[in-house]
């Protein structure tokens, strides 16, 4: 899934309060806009833009928190535009590679059969299709260690559930809107729960507390016990 965004298109720079700048690459989620956002966030961290105290990538944008005493919005905008002129090819952005084993279905994935039915697939065929290609971490956030992975092909896109579950346990593997997500803590969710993993992307006792970052590659594999 790509759009017409290329490296020579300057994103929108928007003020957020008196100490934030949003560098926005698109109004809609796409693979290329997400790659641009991830690539720019890494560039901003590496260049250590003056006055910037935090770089926070999102799905199609990057939040720059800055010290307004040290730098103004207009001056920071100039620094950002200069950095963007030297941004590497968005398609070349790579991260670490991780294999994550998942027990699909049964009590671990109570929505697996429903998702497979929505896609007119047998549960085993859905699992095979789900795991057939690596995914990228397109964003982290929402809850500590929560990971969004995408994007699945159009043939595997289903909407979120009509009803929100009040709580699902850490390790739940979630599926909706062309993405697979991994919960690292107990959370409420409107996504379909298709499995569970022992992998945890949040440990407050270590620094950094998360192992995955936007741009990493995820390979999902079926663990024994598919139901």
From TrEMBL:
Pfam family, one: CT_C_D
Signal peptide from the UniProt entry: none
SUPFAM superfamilies: Cyclophilin-like, PH0987 N-terminal domain-like
A GO term for molecular function: ATP binding
Domain of life: Bacteria
Keyword Hydrolase set for record: yes
Annotated keywords: ATP-binding, Hydrolase, Nucleotide-binding
Domain Carboxyltransferase: 11-212
Protein name as catalogued: Allophanate hydrolase
Organism, scientific name: Pelagibacterium lentulum
